[in-house]
Amino acid sequence: MSENSQVSPGRSKSPLRYIVMAVVAGVIACTGYFAFGGQQRVPDATFTLLSGQKISTSTDLKGKVYLINFWATDCETCMKEMPAMVDTYNRFKGRGLEFVAVAMKYDAPMYVTNYAQTRNLPFKVAMDDGSAAKQFGNVQLTPTTFVVDKDGKILKRYVGEPTFSELDALLDKALNAA
Hints:
Layout: H1 15-35, E1 40-41, E2 46-49, E3 54-56, E4 66-71, H2 76-92, E5 98-103, H3 109-118, E6 124-127, H4 131-135, E7 144-148, E8 153-159, H5 164-177
Parallel strand pairs: 4-5, 5-6
Antiparallel strand pairs: 1-8, 2-3, 2-6, 4-7, 7-8
């Protein structure tokens, strides 16, 4: 080896160094995720109900267990899950469950109103102006449902139709703790 081609001690050019650094970073990230239970706090969001009334996660829903369900009238999975969502709400509302079905920004208000009225949806229905979906992690896929506990922690985010037996167990546990 010539003088110019020598690698100084402690300065390895091996890709192994980068692999080790990536693994360490991954372990730190996973440790942090599991140390906090992967739970995030619910964002401070305000929803405009079909009635025009506004409700907020930071005031009106504070201290309550609730579901936020982003949906659309042109979403087949949303239409398929909605009767089960109604059943879930009806089973748990007596124990304090709140529910806000948030129609996506692109959904026509007249379609949302018609659907809510003809199906006699028993929970709050809101129209999103795009801000709520953005605050909840830029929701783009429907249905997306968030389960929030009384402390404002997101317990679960379902993208697509939830497994209702799992959702029931999660709600039961959260409501028992409330």
